Amino acid sequence: MKVLEGLYYSKDHEWVKVEGDKVYIGITDYAQHSLGNIVYVELPEVGSELSAGDVLGVVESVKAASDVYTPVDIKVLEVNNSLVEDPSLINNDPYGSWMVIAELKDKSQLDKLMKADEYRKFLEEE
């Protein structure tokens, strides 16, 4: 499984990329691999305010449907409609296929997430 440096990871297999006060959120390579061929993606409304642990969206594959959770408190600024039109983009490039761009409400929440090395160890124990 591919794990990229410079991102934050949740135990629910979401990744967070920080750029200034904005964050990009998507699902990890492990998550997309576990799901299999993704056929449907549901994203939140722009302007939605979500707390850490809230459902950010839904990803469905031929095997299962899975909720995607926001790992941090956010306000959704933009959604990636390309994923709605072509959900397989997540399978092809999980780290390039962000689900939302959002305003990060509390940077200290990033401290509760895993860095790449910690996430790799977490995956070994899964």
TrEMBL record:
PANTHER family, from UniProt? GLYCINE CLEAVAGE SYSTEM H PROTEIN, GLYCINE CLEAVAGE SYSTEM H PROTEIN-RELATED
Point out the gene that encodes the protein: gcvH
Q: Where in the numbering of this chain does the Lipoyl-binding domain appear? A: 22-103
Do you know which PROSITE patterns this protein is assigned to? Answer: BIOTINYL_LIPOYL (PS50968)
| Cofactor, how bound (note) | Binds 1 lipoyl cofactor covalently.
Q: Which UniProt keywords apply?
A: Lipoyl
One GO process term, biological-process aspect: protein lipoylation
Please describe what this protein does: The glycine cleavage system catalyzes the degradation of glycine. The H protein shuttles the methylamine group of glycine from the P protein to the T protein.
Q: Which Gene3D superfamilies match?
A: 2.40.50.100
Classification via SUPFAM superfamilies: Single hybrid motif
An example GO CC term for this entry is: cytoplasm
Q: What is this protein called?
A: Glycine cleavage system H protein
Instruction: Identify its protein family.
Output: Belongs to the GcvH family.
Q: How does it assemble?
A: The glycine cleavage system is composed of four proteins: P, T, L and H.
Q: According to the lineage, what is the superkingdom?
A: Bacteria
